[in-house]
């Protein structure tokens, strides 16, 4: 039971922890639901729906479809007193085949749990809480266009927590850019008239070989990963279109 006066740091921490504990069962259920229903980037409709529903139930004002990104959202709660603006980042997209291997079903609920806990004391200390729903973190992401549009400009700080096998207060992260290369050639029958074709898949293979040759000169903190997403439709047809994606 809390006995300290309002405004006391220990009192506020206790109230935050008690609020989170009181909602823990519900938070875990939502996290499990998202984990059992993985959705790829920009397709996180179930996750966005259940997260925004919970935030509204907790008294946050929710705006959906930020910057015309259908599965993004921005939830906010402001005290009547002035104070800092806290930005909490929620990620909830999954990976192909392996689902939530990066734990985004945990990340979103950690941020929402922190927001709900902080809301229990924000009216006493002043300020604004925002939860940014940022889809497609595994690919192009929503944070970059949100930042470019100035949505974080008045935030005093932004933070999130990421699952890890050990406890770390902070750490280094690699910046990421997503690139797609598309090559167009000319289709031809591979047996009857291969000389009439221009093989787009050959261009993609040359791209991979060139990147592999580059790796020995890359610094130790550089990573390049690529896949061929389109490379033809049949072995007896010269591919006229091929696509590779890289991170």
From TrEMBL:
Which first-to-last residue range defines the signal peptide? none
Peptidase M20 dimerisation domain mapped to chain residues = 184-246
Determine if Hydrolase is one of this entry's keywords.
yes
> What Gene Ontology molecular-function terms does this entry list?
dipeptidase activity; para-aminobenzoyl-glutamate hydrolase activity
Pfam families to which the protein is assigned, alphabetical: M20_dimer
For this UniProt record, give its keywords in alphabetical order, as a comma-separated list: Hydrolase
Q: Entry's Gene3D superfamilies?
A: 3.30.70.360, Zn peptidases
Q: What highest taxon heads this organism's lineage?
A: Bacteria
Keyword Coiled coil recorded: no
The record's listing under InterPro entries reads: Amidohydrolase, Bact_exopeptidase_dim_dom, Peptidase_M20/M20A_hydrolases, Peptidase_M20_dimer
Q: What's a single GO CC term here?
A: cytoplasm
* UniProt GO BP: folic acid catabolic process
Return the protein name.
Answer: Amidohydrolase
Q: What is the protein's species of origin? A: Paenibacillus larvae subsp. larvae
């Amino acid at each position: 039971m809390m006995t300290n006066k309002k405004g006391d740091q220990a009192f506020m921490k206790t109230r935050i922890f008690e609020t989170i504990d009181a909602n823990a069962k519900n938070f875990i259920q939502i996290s499990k639901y998202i984990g059992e229903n993985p959705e790829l980037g920009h397709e996180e409709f179930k996750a966005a729906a259940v997260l925004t529903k919970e935030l509204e139930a907790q008294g946050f004002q929710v705006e959906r479809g930020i910057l015309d990104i259908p599965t993004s959202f921005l939830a906010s709660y402001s005290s009547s007193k002035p104070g800092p603006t806290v930005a909490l980042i929620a990620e909830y997209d999954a990976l192909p085949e392996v689902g939530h291997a990066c734990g985004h079903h945990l990340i979103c609920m950690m941020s929402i749990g922190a927001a709900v806990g902080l809301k229990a004391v924000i009216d006493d200390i002043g300020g604004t809480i925002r939860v940014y729903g940022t889809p497609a973190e595994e690919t192009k992401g929503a944070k970059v266009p949100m930042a470019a549009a100035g949505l974080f400009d008045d935030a005093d700080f932004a933070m999130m927590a990421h699952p890890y096998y050990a406890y770390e207060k902070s750490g280094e992260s690699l910046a990421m850019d997503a690139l797609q290369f598309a090559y167009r050639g000319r289709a031809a029958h591979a047996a009857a008239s291969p000389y009439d074709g221009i093989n787009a898949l050959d261009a993609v293979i040359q791209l991979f070989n060139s990147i592999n040759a580059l790796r020995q000169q890359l610094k130790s903190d550089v990573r390049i990963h690529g896949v061929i997403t389109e490379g033809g439709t049949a072995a007896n047809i010269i591919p006229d279109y091929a696509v590779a994606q890289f991170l």
